[in-house]
Design goal:
Layout (H helix, E strand, L loop, with lengths): L2 E6 L2 H4 L12 H4 L2 H4 L2 H6 L1 H15 L6 H8 L5 E6 L5 H5 L4 E3 L2 E8 L6 E3 L19 E5 L9 H10 L2 E5 L21 E4 L10 E4 L3 H13 L2
Parallel strand pairs: 1-2, 1-7, 2-3, 7-8, 8-9
Antiparallel strand pairs: 4-5, 4-6
Bound molecules: 2'-O-acetyl adenosine-5-diphosphoribose.
Amino acid sequence: MKKLVVSTGAGISKESGVSTFRDADGLWENYPVMDVASASGFRRNPALVHKFYNERRKQLLTVEPNAAHRGLVELEKYFDTYVITQNVDDLHERAGSKNILHLHGELMKIRSMRDERRVYTLTPPDIETSIDTRDKYGDRVRPHIVFFEEAVPNIGPAIKLAEQADIFVVIGTSLVVYPAASLMNYVRRGVPVYYIDPNPSPVPSYVTVIAEPATKGVAHLIDILTKD
Ligand code: OAD
């Protein structure tokens, strides 16, 4: 089976009702990004950051995976499929994708501030955290999110997947946040690369751009990849 590697951003979850970050109605329009999503912002005002992620979690419980998430699961019938996602939502998991690598962390997880290896999954309805939340060892917790100014621990395995890809697909990302945006550069020469986004950012000419929303674009991609 050929190895299909799909790199997804906020745009794939847009049709589920999850806001993107940099579109006109995006999250960073309403919240200063360096206040709620940076290491220095968390040090400055941890209560605000807890509140921000509590709201994101509550919202995530109200949405469902869409046809684009499900389409990637369908592609597992034809390809050895891996999803690398910048998204912190769990919609790929809920759609049923088998191999998912989160680059920027996971909204429904928290971790100890003393030992980052202690990661806990929140179970609804207990999804709110605060500066007073402690784990079972009595240590404070923080969102299991990769903040700006922090390293991206999963970038190594993600680069390896990009290097091994026989087909590489990018969906719904503005390609402005690094190192995620650089993954395409690790794809071997001659490997087909597709980019699905209704408002695509500039990409090299070897990339086939499918300028459609994710649900329609993934249906289109399935036609292209399974026609022969
Ligand atoms: P952005 O908000 O930067 O970009 C969203 C992309 O989705 C844009 O290119 C849109 O054109 C596209 N889009 C909008 N509607 C779409 C649809 N229906 N189908 C497909 N695409 C659509 O989001 P990301 O590139 O994912 O990090 O942002 C990267 C990172 O920046 C995020 O992971 C987040 C943020 O700061 C953290 O919070 C750590």
